[in-house]
Write a structure and sequence with these properties.
alpha+beta, three-stranded antiparallel sheet, 3 helices, 3 strands, about 25% helix
Length: about 120
Amino acid sequence: DFTTMREGAKLFVGTHDFAGFSGPLANGTSTTVREIMEVAVNESGELFTVDIEGNAFLPHQVRRMVGALVDLSRGKMTKYELRQILDRDSNGQVAHSLPPQGLCLMNVKYNKIPLGGGEIK
């Protein structure tokens, strides 16, 4: 149900604590707050893609975000349950992770990185 996936994807946009969508962190004191600028769900027949733009990502975050959208579209999760995971009010529930096959890093943007290796101003 791509309409439901698109509705659920809107919940991710903004600044949230994505702890419920993260795998273990190498540094236990790292923040799990990330900003998501856009989530686009595109379909072509039975194939779909999810494009996510954010300021940074946690381990497994994208795989778990898309896993939650798939669960939502199949009726295995409600928007309320998805919101609970985002609000860290889910009693430890985390989104399930999709396998890494099909996950592609499409682009990386850096602000204020000088050409030629000089110092950042």
